Amino acid sequence: MPDSIVNDFSLRIATPNGTGSQTSNLIIFRALFHMGLAPSSKNLFPSNIAGLPTWYQIRVSPEGWQARRENWQVLLPLNPVTLAADLAECAPGTVVIDNADMKGVEESIFEGFIRYPVPFDQIARDGISDAKLRPKLRNLIYVGVVAELFGIPEASLRASIESVFSKKKAVADINFEAAMLGATYAREHLQKKDPYRLTSAEQTAGKILIEGNDATALGCVFGGCSVVAWYPITPASSVAEFLIGHFARVREKDADGANRYIVVQAEDELAAVGMAIGAGWAGARSMTSTSGPGVSLMSENLGLAYFAEIPVVVFDIQRVGPSTGLPTRTQQSDLLQVAFQSHGDTRFPMIFPTDPKEAFEFSCAAFNLAEHYQTPIFVMSDLDLGMNLWVSDELEYPEAPIDRGKLATDEVLAKSAEWGRYLDIDGDGVPYRTVPHKTTDPRTAHLTRGSGHDEQGRYSENPEVYARNLDRLARKIDGTVDRLPAPIAHAGEGSGLGIIAFGTTDHAVREARAGMDSLVPYLRVRSWPFHASVADFVRNHERVVVIEQNQQGQLAQLLRIAFPELAPRIDSARYYGGLPLSAAFVRDAIEERMVKA
Amino acid sequence: MPDSIVNDFSLRIATPNGTGSQTSNLIIFRALFHMGLAPSSKNLFPSNIAGLPTWYQIRVSPEGWQARRENWQVLLPLNPVTLAADLAECAPGTVVIDNADMKGVEESIFEGFIRYPVPFDQIARDGISDAKLRPKLRNLIYVGVVAELFGIPEASLRASIESVFSKKKAVADINFEAAMLGATYAREHLQKKDPYRLTSAEQTAGKILIEGNDATALGCVFGGCSVVAWYPITPASSVAEFLIGHFARVREKDADGANRYIVVQAEDELAAVGMAIGAGWAGARSMTSTSGPGVSLMSENLGLAYFAEIPVVVFDIQRVGPSTGLPTRTQQSDLLQVAFQSHGDTRFPMIFPTDPKEAFEFSCAAFNLAEHYQTPIFVMSDLDLGMNLWVSDELEYPEAPIDRGKLATDEVLAKSAEWGRYLDIDGDGVPYRTVPHKTTDPRTAHLTRGSGHDEQGRYSENPEVYARNLDRLARKIDGTVDRLPAPIAHAGEGSGLGIIAFGTTDHAVREARAGMDSLVPYLRVRSWPFHASVADFVRNHERVVVIEQNQQGQLAQLLRIAFPELAPRIDSARYYGGLPLSAAFVRDAIEERMVKA
Amino acid sequence: MSDTPIAPNTNRLGLTKSEYGGMPSTMCKGCGHDRISEAVIQAAYDLGLDARNLIKMSGIGCSSKTPAYFIGKAFGLNSTHGRMPSFATGAHVANRDLVPLGVSGDGDTASIGMGQFVHLLRRNARMVYIVENNGVYGLTKGQFSATADRSSPSKRGAHPTEEAIDLCGLALELGAGFVARSFSGDKKQLVPLLKSALSYDGLAFIDVISPCVTFNNHEASTKSYTYQKEHDVHFHDPTYVASFEHIDVEYEEGETRDVRLHDGSHLLLRKIDRDYDPTDRHAASRVIDESRSKGEVLTGMIFIDIAKTSLVSSMQMTKTPLAMLEEPELRPSRSALEKVMAGFRF
Amino acid sequence: MSDTPIAPNTNRLGLTKSEYGGMPSTMCKGCGHDRISEAVIQAAYDLGLDARNLIKMSGIGCSSKTPAYFIGKAFGLNSTHGRMPSFATGAHVANRDLVPLGVSGDGDTASIGMGQFVHLLRRNARMVYIVENNGVYGLTKGQFSATADRSSPSKRGAHPTEEAIDLCGLALELGAGFVARSFSGDKKQLVPLLKSALSYDGLAFIDVISPCVTFNNHEASTKSYTYQKEHDVHFHDPTYVASFEHIDVEYEEGETRDVRLHDGSHLLLRKIDRDYDPTDRHAASRVIDESRSKGEVLTGMIFIDIAKTSLVSSMQMTKTPLAMLEEPELRPSRSALEKVMAGFRF
Ligand SMILES: Cc1ncc(C[n+]2csc(CCOP(=O)(O)OP(=O)(O)O)c2C)c(N)n1
Ligand SMILES: Cc1ncc(C[n+]2csc(CCOP(=O)(O)OP(=O)(O)O)c2C)c(N)n1
Ligand code: SF4
Ligand code: SF4
Ligand SMILES: [Mg+2]
Ligand SMILES: [Mg+2]
């Protein structure tokens, strides 16, 4: 082992859920950011409010990789319940900072590790007078120990603590003091025996710290969304909760100080999506955010929006399914369900953001797409992106103006002799949308319906009329590729193996590629239906492996359907344990296939 | 035109909905059956209770084909609203029996047709004294006219009328008399000018007349179903309604005359499927029947049944989608939705009955499958099969005994030292199912859940445990092919083009093949996941065309996913106008491709 | 009388009644639902209502089809079975100037729609909500709905196995501010109630007994025309006076209650025998419940509370309908984003 | 006293109380839900209940997790959010010998579950239905549920914008036969109510105020321990006497009501101040409603009707649980099929 490893290791903190340790972990994380490092954080928390084991993993790397690192070099096993298991998972030589006051712990289990025992209880008892505050403040002690052992400057620590407790100076002070108790103890009693060190760096220029759901919420504000109907569900709740805050702060009020938005907490997801669709029908930009179980409940109403051609944006912050599954773990397993949900011939376009910046951009763009194509647009995020804190590029002001799409205004209607709500005037399958009060032309008034209708929106059971309508809808959905985010190609060597990935999988893929001797060509898909260039990429390689976070290889299946002639070359490598994907998994998957090839 | 065409033409009757004409049409149909003919009937009715146009098509053919014939040789345009349109759709030389008393009708519109004008109103006025009965009885007049013109023996007519009014002799008599008014008029005033004739035949030995939903209901009774929870929806309602009758008549009562079943009309489909799943969990054979919109509402609860491994049978009597679509027209467009519904990695096995006999057999078998594999089984019928009257082979008593599958009985548990509800003891991915009161072993009691669980059914967030469970579920579902109905191959010539079809499409396909010079090989798929023999069939042909009744080519897409290496050869021909499929459509689809090939 | 328009055969907008019509009905001849559509047309015509400010919302069922048959100049959304309340709420908050006229059935509301109906009542968004109550699922051919009385057999003689839900009782329990019941055969009562509902700023619920002539109009039915005629008991004799009319009905004190509605119009309730106070929620539940046990069907203005604030008013929303806002109002400035970014830096 | 078991530390089945326990709870320390689980264990132990005849049913929420923490010897189904009533109904009709003990939350029942809850009450299938009512969505971190009072702000100070639903009032309106309210902090009242519910042949509903210490136990909350303690008003002082015990509580006439339950046990209600008749549905709604406006939270046996017939009884079902029937009873004979076929021939 080299005697010094700088800014390139990861730290795992094991605590019981709901004990306040999250604040301490956040403080360490932000302190690193303050040092100019681009750390990654993965919060592996249970579906429980307090008591169950939780792990927080902080990683630093010279490149500022954001993917989860599979192994860790430093462990703080502060949860008695999981102590043994946590240690068992560690490689020999792992640095272990444990609570020396823990009762009944066999010394032997620490063998083979670089151990720093710290009497946290005693330090707390001696150093924190106020017994009421002690339980929470004691968590700050390990912050100080970590800072001292690995070299987080006091300034960064203080800055971090102050930012976490923002305005509350007094609170910040006592927390800082508590942290100092740990630092002091470490300085006086711990002899540095490990090679891991932190030093200030230049990784954070133009970077921000943000959760994906926060960026998604901002995208809605700048995307012009004004009606939000939601029902709480992990990991989607914070989209609406952040949104409430951003609306209040940045959506300009009217002259009387009244709100230019409304957020309704509905009684369930059927109602949430119903309200959002009703609002879209009446001409407001509307959305709902949910996760798998909610999507399953929305499918009938979404079928109406599809067939009646009503704009609405749905955010699916994916978690582990099927059923209740693991509500606090991450997956990309709703694709097939979303794509073909609701009975009959339907297709629901999907967009796949990969990081907070795209979460913002795609969320903003989704409203233009929904209104232009007059159909539900799904933004497929996931728990890893949505609920973890990411070091992201700053969000850029949207270039594209708000585009209400093809609206039946008086001008438009004046030009068109023949009029019909579902008339394909431009031959692109996209009709002109009506919004009450947007026109005075009496021809536009009609009863929107989910039953069979002709070009004028009148009820019809005529077989030709019905088939013609389904064909137009198919053309319309095929056409969405003109405006959906195009795939991004990362050139590589050779035409043997190619990689396809989407969403949060991208981070592990890019890290894995960087770490390999030969650079494998990689295409990141950003939407479905697929662009023609996706087919080109597959065609240009003997074999393509789709890396995804589900059991069935759902994107691979969508590719096989979209490009049957290329289906034989499409392979997939799948992880579905619920933890954020690691570069190691990707590397193995690729190497395995390179050998085969 | 040959001067005599015997037992080979079709008759189209146009009337307003809800005027009682259905009874008359049924009488004609049953009279033909009584003559030993195997007629086909297609009831093209509107989504309305009374007033809108409805058409009834009766067809006779030497082979007794049951598919819809695209053209008709005899028309009764008795609906003033559609008179002109109905005539416009007819080929020259069509026989037209019209109401001479209809006001304001241009003589000219009958030009080019073989016309038999009949003063129905006047005949009714003169012949039917009771003004209250007249509106209904007048419909019998055209029955008599048809009988006289084309040669339905009086005996068959009487037999038919008596069977329709079963016990009510008096009612039968006045109806027969009304029919005779028409017959007499025709005899006295109409000069036979057309070549179409009916004669007795031998097509009905061992045949019965039955609606698909009726056979489906019987299958549930003989399949051992005891709990039914449903919510009304066209075209599925009659499954439950027939079932109520059959239960009462043929499910043996207990010693006290009490019922050995329960049928609950739920408040909606979420509740209907919830009750059915709850009953399956408690150990009863349970089912729910619905159509597209209902399936869309069931998807969250079905995800629980999939993941918690609870048996339940769902009958999807498909209608035209998306959304409300055309509730009284037929399609096969719920496949993709059903196969991958509910969030997360799920698959729901589907069975495709093609006629009443299979509707009975598959419905019966579905309960064994659901209990053996402990998963929801979908029986995918449609409106054409479910609500039309079919000439079918007699239903045969089920050979396979009722098989409750792998149950955790005391015997089983005695043998197995290690026990877990989800433990894969036999290596086939199918665990042993627990039913309260079926065992006294205390180890079996547990809390069934849709959240992550280990082999013992205990809550677990462990990534390996979760992935292992998903893998076992995948193995289990793959294994269903061992018991799902296998495909049926119809040999043909050459290895160029092959046909694949399923469900009601089969009738048009078999008729089309019979009518072609070169017999195209044909495989009828009867379930999904697909058997290996389906891949063999595709592999053995340069090109395979899937004939289906939906817009997206849904079965073709499932084939491309299942057999990626064969995807390039899989093509599809699709009809989705909502009328039952005709042989003509299939013939065109095949010929077009034979030219190409 | 409020039913007299400004000039013969035209209303204050100069429109004839036929201009409030819709497509030809496809209901069965004699269906109660058609009578309700006529009443809606009458009310809209009398009020001189601008069809562009009304949106017709419905679920699925025969009843839910009727919006196609009245006020063809208004937009409408025929949504999904039992979920109309959510679509109507969404449409109204998107454009607060659009007043939803919701038409539902007893199956659509009391069976599959119960959850959304209950929460719609709580939310009190401005809307007129009509249940065309026939005790059966008409469109699916006559199965019992959740409002079918246990004493009321089907044509085949089967009886419901569960208690009927009294939607008015439920609405009262859930705090609805406008609860009325009427009969499709009684335009004289239904029209003024509809007008009052359209003048009410909140959720106005009207349960209208509307016989299904095809599946539930037989002797033994408690939802038949005959049954309703024989058991109908009126609370009061209602008269509606629009804000643009002056009250010219003379009445003695104590004989008539004058309810002033949000838009300045008046609902005059002339006492019949007993004096009934439609502003006492408890009395209301007690009375309809007692009358039910007596086999009566009380109709009229059961309860009204004009003090309740509607959803939009309680939400501090801008007066401009959200649907009419454009980029300048909807998209914050670059500097706004810059400020937000600052917070994410350090 | 009914709480005294036959022999010290064991009940009539010879089981200790710990044998009615479950897995260790994962609720927050002090969560009201844990107290309810304890009460359930106490009731089951006192009754000498055979765990194999009980099925624990729940939806999704902190409350809905608790069936894992009591009576581990019973089977249970932790179903989907708001849909437990349908699963419980299905399970019970499949095996009528299994009594469902349903545990739900105010979000699970009053928000997403409202539709099924209403129809469960109508259907009256035998079942104990407990709502662990804390006014918030605990598991999703504290959003308001439909039972949150408008006067009760969140920790952040926001107020609900909609009226709270009183589940007991709703249950009464919908004709429920057993309606009670209690408090997780009041075992003395809750345990006898639970036992009575378990002895009732029909839908027994108990709304239990169960504070969420993490998200809704602050000063201003009306669902906090303190608030409930300060505003709790008891109807009576309840005592449960099992059928296998003899009534040895002495009481003066007129002071106590004796309600005889279906299984022969008795619920003795000792009058506190006013005399309250729990068999008068109207009085019940009026009283809980008035007390609500007075800011009181009335608890106890609000309403009971032992005359109602439960779903299974009204369905003429065989005594043998359907789940226990096998091929001989389930599959009709060949001749039966032959008879049916005859009808399809001609
Ligand atoms: C999800 C769903 N389930 C079932 C149906 C079938 N369906 C159509 S209308 C209807 C009931 C209508 O009853 P009601 O609301 O009382 O209206 P009515 O026809 O009596 O006026 C049902 C069950 C449907 N369209 N959608
Ligand atoms: C279909 C669906 N929507 C949303 C959720 C997320 N969710 C889990 S629990 C819960 C609310 C629970 O509240 P309550 O029933 O009051 O239980 P409590 O936690 O307060 O005891 C919600 C909304 C879910 N699991 N499923
Ligand atoms: S079926 Fe009944 S409800 Fe429907 S239209 Fe006919 S009469 Fe009216
Ligand atoms: S969050 Fe609230 S309801 Fe959930 S366990 Fe904690 S205290 Fe109980
Ligand atoms: Mg109805
Ligand atoms: Mg709660």
Keywords:
heterotetramer, A: 597 residues, alpha/beta, seven-stranded mixed β-sheet, six-stranded mixed β-sheet, 19 helices, 23 strands, 38% helix, globular, C: 346 residues, eight-stranded mixed β-sheet, three-stranded antiparallel β-sheet, 13 strands, binds thiamine diphosphate, binds iron/sulfur cluster, binds magnesium ion
Secondary-structure topology with pairs:
The complex is a heterotetramer, with 2 copies of chain A (597 residues) and 2 copies of chain C (346 residues).
Chain A: E1 5-6, E2 9-16, H1 21-34, E3 40-44, E4 53-60, E5 74-77, H2 83-88, E6 95-99, E7 114-118, H3 120-127, H4 134-150, H5 154-164, H6 169-189, E8 196-197, E9 207-211, H7 212-222, E10 227-230, H8 237-250, E11 262-265, H9 269-282, E12 286-290, H10 292-308, E13 312-318, H11 335-340, E14 350-351, H12 356-373, E15 376-382, H13 383-387, E16 389-393, H14 410-415, E17 447-449, H15 463-479, E18 488-490, E19 497-501, H16 505-514, E20 522-524, E21 527-528, H17 532-539, E22 543-548, H18 554-562, E23 570-574, H19 583-596
Parallel strand pairs in A: 1-8, 2-5, 5-6, 6-7, 10-11, 10-12, 12-13, 13-15, 14-15, 19-20, 19-22, 22-23
Antiparallel strand pairs in A: 2-4, 3-4, 9-16, 14-21, 18-20
Helix pairs in contact in A: 1-4, 1-5, 3-4, 3-6, 4-6, 5-6, 7-8, 7-12, 9-10, 16-19
Chain C: H1 32-47, E1 54-58, H2 62-65, E2 75-78, H3 84-94, E3 99-105, H4 106-111, H5 114-123, E4 127-133, E5 136-137, E6 143-144, H6 167-173, E7 178-183, H7 187-198, E8 203-209, H8 225-231, E9 232-234, E10 236-241, E11 256-260, E12 266-271, H9 281-293, E13 297-304, H10 311-314, H11 327-330, H12 334-345
Parallel strand pairs in C: 1-2, 1-3, 3-4, 4-8, 7-8, 9-13
Antiparallel strand pairs in C: 5-6, 7-13, 10-12, 11-12
Helix pairs in contact in C: 1-7, 6-9
The complex binds thiamine diphosphate (2 copies), iron/sulfur cluster (SF4) (2 copies) and magnesium ion (MG) (2 copies).
